[in-house]
């Protein structure tokens, strides 16, 4: 078990704007972990990047090391948008994220898969060691329990369904034509919800047409569908009353040119407006498009009314999940304590084993004549019995010391029995002890 501590920093839908989230997003989670591991004294790293959050977790000898690495990682982001946390807060926050308590849509299901994918990416980059292995797998376990044992994910469960609700609040969806731009997970959810809302036709535009074909083939409702390449957007945008965008493009895919003046006049004569819900991060829709008289553009920040309603509906379930997290967090910290006590115990037994082996050989060399196998077994058995009896009381004491947060005792044991242990290399005490008076670091602090 690592003797380091976890430090984390994040930019989320709560702390930053859509543009700040876009600026914080790495090219890939695996590449971000690889970058963090190049920082001296960073032992482990994990990065979770979604449309609503970019979070980085590192394990280092102390929080000074972790904060320095994360400050560089988020160097392009204004400090007020970055939330930095110490060990205890970081672990608890990770459990809350996986359980859906930190999502735009409280309890949404997509985040648990995203946490798991980020774990696989971090493993591929060599970022998962003993400490983050325990933390992230515990978070995944909590997320699964929250969704199977509570009602936290009943009702509106995704941004795709929230986008449909937002559009329905602006114009009738029954009989309308809807356009979904992007055939990824978010686009799939948006398409599924729009198809179930009573629309007449669904058009899906995507860079890879085969992916769009697959999406419409999986719809559970039979409606008219069309698939077009992304290059053909201009030919289909003006015919859709509702547009939901969810691409991974670095640049906007829709702008004022897609809504030409002639089309605007035609739309105005029909007495309808086009509603666009931009789920992209970075933005899929250029802000200038929202200035057109017949176009309404909503982004992630504008889904607050839907998410607030969902939070109210799931308040009781959220309290159940909070209690679940409290218990699972306690189990995680106990797991860390046991592992660190076991490290001291292992060092103690390894030291005793070296002494035992040396003294057994010395004793056997003093015996007259050739030593039989039976004699060797007798001497070794006696030595093993002595070691086990002598170390049984300190073994019990070390386990009790860990349970009672008596880390000075374990620190002393490691100094006595592990010749390679240097107390100056880094803290052995559990992070809850170390971070009690820690400097909050860059950006805002988490008051969870």
Automatic annotation (TrEMBL):
The keyword Oxidoreductase applies. Substrate binds at residues 50-53, 103, 108-110, 114. One of its GO terms (molecular function) is glutamyl-tRNA reductase activity. Pathway: Porphyrin-containing compound metabolism; protoporphyrin-IX biosynthesis; 5-aminolevulinate from L-glutamyl-tRNA(Glu): step 1/2. NADP(+) binds at residues 182-187. The active site is at residue 51. It catalyses: (S)-4-amino-5-oxopentanoate + tRNA(Glu) + NADP(+) = L-glutamyl-tRNA(Glu) + NADPH + H(+). SUPFAM superfamilies: Glutamyl tRNA-reductase catalytic, N-terminal domain (SSF69742), Glutamyl tRNA-reductase dimerization domain (SSF69075), NAD(P)-binding Rossmann-fold domains (SSF51735). Keywords: NADP, Oxidoreductase, Porphyrin biosynthesis. Residues 12-150 form the Glutamyl-tRNA reductase N-terminal domain. The record marks 93 as: Important for activity. Residues 173-306 form the Quinate/shikimate 5-dehydrogenase/glutamyl-tRNA reductase domain. Its EC number is 1.2.1.70. Catalyzes the NADPH-dependent reduction of glutamyl-tRNA(Glu) to glutamate 1-semialdehyde (GSA). PANTHER family: GLUTAMYL-TRNA REDUCTASE. Possesses an unusual extended V-shaped dimeric structure with each monomer consisting of three distinct domains arranged along a curved 'spinal' alpha-helix. The N-terminal catalytic domain specifically recognizes the glutamate moiety of the substrate. The second domain is the NADPH-binding domain, and the third C-terminal domain is responsible for dimerization. Homodimer. During catalysis, the active site Cys acts as a nucleophile attacking the alpha-carbonyl group of tRNA-bound glutamate with the formation of a thioester intermediate between enzyme and glutamate, and the concomitant release of tRNA(Glu). The thioester intermediate is finally reduced by direct hydride transfer from NADPH, to form the product GSA. This is Glutamyl-tRNA reductase.
